[in-house]
Amino acid sequence: MIATTESRTAAPLTPGLLEKINAYWRAANYLSVGQIYLHDNPLLRRPLRVEDIKHMLLGHWGTTPGQNFIYAHLNRVIKAFDLNMIYIAGPGHGGPALVANTYLEGTYTEVYPAISRDEAGLKKLFTQFSFPGGIPSHVSPECPGSIHEGGELGYSLSHAFGAVFDNPGLITACVIGDGEAETGPLATAWHSNKFLHPVNDGTVLPILHLNGYKIANPTILARISREELEQLLNGYGWTPYFVEGDDPATMHQLMAATLDEVITVISAIRSEALANGPVWRPRWPMIVLKTPKGWTGPKMIDGLPVEGSFRSHQVPLADPGKNPAHLRQLEEWLRSYRPEELFDEKGALRPELAELAPAGSRRMGANPNANGGLLLKDLKMPDFRHFSVKVEAPGKGEASDTLVLGEFLAEVIRLNGEQRNFRIFGPDETLSNRLDAVFTATNRQWEAVRLETDQYLAYEGRVMEVLSEHQCEGWLEGYLLTGRHGLFNSYEAFIHIVDSMFNQHAKWLKVTSQLPWRRKIASLNYLLASHVWRQDHNGFTHQDPGFIDHVVNKKAEVVRVYLPPDANCLLSTIDHCLRSRHYVNVVIAGKHPAPQWLDIDEAVLHCSKGIGIWSWASNDRDKEPDVVMVCAGDVPTLEILAATAILREKIPGLTIRVVNVVDLMKLQPATEHPHGLNEVDFDLLFTKEKPVIFAFHGYPWLIHRLTYKRTNHSNIHVRGYKEEGTITTPFDMTVLNDMDRFHLVMDVIDRLPSWGKNALISNKRCRIS
After folding, report:
1. Which residue in 82, 20, 16 sits closest to 263, CA to CA?
2. Residues 652-655: contacts with CB within 8 Å, 24+ apart?
């Protein structure tokens, strides 16, 4: 049976407490409107004047009063039940609400002392909002308590689940806007309850906020019947509790009663699972809150309905600085909250209202889970050298790079089993990417029905797999943002699905790196296998190395791209990435058996430098070469070395230097990226005037982009993927894209016409081949 508000008739709030909670809500609403409109006269000590109004009005009112209502009621249950809770605002454009509430609870002033809890502080609070040199209009990293900005919709529920994995004491209250609920990632995220362990993990409390409208259109879930919505949510495996209405006094009682019941149900589920084990998948409770959009705002403006309409979405009164009637209406709106009853003569929230907020780290703005670096513990790391491949000589013997890595990751899982702070995420590709060995140490976590024929499924596991890159990314981001570590493994071509999510996380890292109070978190690590050059069996749709291009658009202090050429270099690279902080690390590696080039000591040295001359493949001892052969990526490395061997055999007098690049950002100048080579070191490797033949894993123009400022850029000739592919052989993939050894030999000869007859003969033979 689905529980609804009709089954609850108790009024848990005494008249006095009801009055105080309503006053607290009014205070949050007042501060929210003030942030959107005012830069002076914050407490309306005098009549509102044009000069009190900001010149540019920005912000989103429509979702804000509903979120203020939710926050006030969550404060009450946190205190009543001593809850450890954080708040995620899916409609993150309701930034005024979270800023207002963290200010009212005192966290904002503790983080930003200049925004004091008095009239002067209120003036600064209002002025800074959505203002140059101030703060953004969303629930941005600058806002205490935020782990989710919500500017791009769709990921709130995924982040909420990531936050509670391995976090059994935490409840994440996740407010989901009914507009956001129309996105694909959010629609899938409801299924995250099939992956939540009722003992080892925490709890997500979704609050679906139905206010009926998006920017200019109604929302789907608000325009279907109550029965259909119940069936939808019930089908997802949730028990929905409905709180509906627009009368504040009635709604306060309904929300309080509902939250009391929901918290009691959550406690009962967890207690039963703790006593009897997770023998069944719980039906977790959730809340559907239906209130008018722009609740408590102007009901009509210029004869048109606003409250309960799409017109309240952003700034309802758009021009009070120019329209006297709108200025009067704005003042009436602000005074309807009766600020003189809410703030004392100094401008501070009255003590009887301030005491409604939780204290210390129980405040949602001050909860350390929302500043995950405070909770971050180093991983216990095995010595990766113990998993290395024996390389007697370069090119002797083969290994699957990711298969070797799997043994190392399995040991990482074992060593961190007790502190439970490492997980691997992926869209059903962990085995396909040849990380098989991790399943000797763990299983896939799965709370739904299991069959005897299933493999590696259990109630508890360190591997999280669902066929949605969005969920994997969102879970991992939430996991990292609350102080844990992880790895996302995926096919290279389909990691593009989370391009935009990567964007948002990279922006978050960039901003938080400049906020001293935000502690650094573990890096977001991507392992991209099944890459472009070995998707010969799946064909053209699976062949796309362009994620690298997308990544390097972001700030240099955030992004890192690694192309280890063999298994030992991959081990060294992943060890480094798992230890790193506050980066996005992209590692691209092969999964098929391939030649191995460096022993473990050589690999460690090479990876620590990020780029270097492979002297054993070169013959330019103590002199400048005739040509520099450069490779970045496992298949490009193989083809460059094969081309070099042909050249040395057919044109014995030719001096060749072979350079391998592991850290792609070494190619940028040091002035552009902290890993970049300075001009002297770059010229020592690439020369100032000799031809450079570069075989690259990705699209060729990226190398030109990274090196365009270099002295010898005009002589750098790049071969890489150029959108030629099909189902064919691995070698033919390189031929189709002119990156095979024979094309590389021809590229050298074409740029060294002075080498005469032998070169011309070799060129002709390569063209025939």
Report:
1. 82
2. 653/755, 654/626, 654/627, 654/748, 654/752, 654/755, 655/619, 655/620, 655/623, 655/624, 655/625, 655/626, 655/627
- pLDDT tens across 19-48, in order? 999 999 999 999 999 999 999 999 999 999
How do residues 548-567 score in pLDDT, each as one tens digit?
999 999 999 999 999 999 99
Structure tokens at 516: 């001293």
Q: How confident is the model at residue 530 (pLDDT cuts 50, 70, 90)?
A: confident
Task: Decide: 197 and 464 in contact? Cβ < 8 Å.
Answer: no
By the 10 Å C-beta count (0-12 exposed, 13-18 middle, 19+ buried), 469 is classed as buried
User: SS3 for 300?
Assistant: strand
Task: Say which residue the tokens 């298969």 belong to.
Answer: 403
The reported pLDDT for the residue numbered 622 is 80
- Residue 525 Cα to chain centre, angstroms: 11
Q: Where are the alpha helices (DSSP H) in 651-753?
A: 679-686, 700-707, 730-736, 741-750
| Residue 88 DSSP code | E
pLDDT at 656 over 60: yes
Q: Tokens at residue 4, please?
A: 């609804």
Q: How far is CA 722 from the centre of its chain?
A: 29
> From the CB of residue 732, how many other CB atoms can be counted at a distance below 10 Å?
15
Triad 764, 766, 769: Cα angle to 5°: 115
**Nearest CA-CA partner of 2 in 245, 265, 203, 183:** 265
Give the Cα separation of 662 and 647 in Å (integer): 24
**What does the pLDDT read at residue 1?**
28
What is the average pLDDT score of the chain?
95
Biggest CA-to-CA distance, the chain? 101
